[in-house]
Design goal:
Elements (H helix, E strand, L loop, with lengths): L1 E5 L5 E5 L10 E3 L2 H9 L5 H6 L8 H27 L2 H16 L11 H31 L3 H21 L1 H10 L1
Antiparallel strand pairs: 1-2, 1-3
């Protein structure tokens, strides 16, 4: 029979005894559920066997990797949000369609949402802004990959938030001109 045993030094252990030790207060018999759990999880701690649940503790490396992935996801969102702050997906799609229609005369000119000049302007700004946002994302990504602690990762994320906010504030004319020229 398996018993939780309190040793003379106060340490707890599990022992298998052939004798009935239920009358000894230092021995507490394991339930059938606890014995089954012990057999399935031979490296489980005393507390895990007592509660029949494994305490899964993430390693520092796993926690750091999770922080890195969350930070990259946030920075990616900031990048796209900044791009779409200036030019929405719909505006870009309409600009592409207008550009193709007007430059190649695929569709009648009256079906175009934008003039050729407007479409070209939107596409150029979309590419410039997209490249700037993407380039900064990859700078951050490289720094995050190399980061060894959560403080560094949070600093990189904070700097990214500042960068993308500043980028939006630095080019208010791009939003104004596009919206007023449409």
């Amino acid at each position: 029979m398996y018993y939780f045993v309190t040793l003379s030094n106060g340490r707890k252990t599990i022992q298998n005894w052939d004798l009935d030790m239920t009358n000894n207060p230092a021995f507490i018999e394991l339930s059938q559920e606890q014995i089954t759990f012990l057999e399935l999880n031979p490296n489980a701690s005393i507390n895990e066997i007592r509660t029949c649940t494994l305490n899964i503790v993430s390693t520092q490396a796993e926690i750091l990797q999770q922080l890195k992935e969350e930070a990259l996801s946030k920075i990616s969102s900031l990048s796209y949000d900044t791009l779409f702050f200036f030019i929405t997906e719909q505006q870009f799609t309409n600009a592409q369609a207008s550009y193709l229609a007007l430059s190649n005369e695929i569709v009648a000119v009256e079906n175009s949402v934008y003039s050729l000049e407007q479409a070209t302007d939107i596409i150029q700004k979309y590419n410039i802004i997209g490249k700037d946002c993407r380039d900064y994302y990859y700078v951050c990504k490289n720094l995050i990959v190399e980061a060894n602690d959560s403080v560094s990762i949070n600093n990189i994320l904070g700097n990214a938030e500042i960068y993308y906010t500043a980028y939006k504030n630095a080019h208010p004319d791009w939003v104004y001109n596009l919206k007023n020229s449409l």
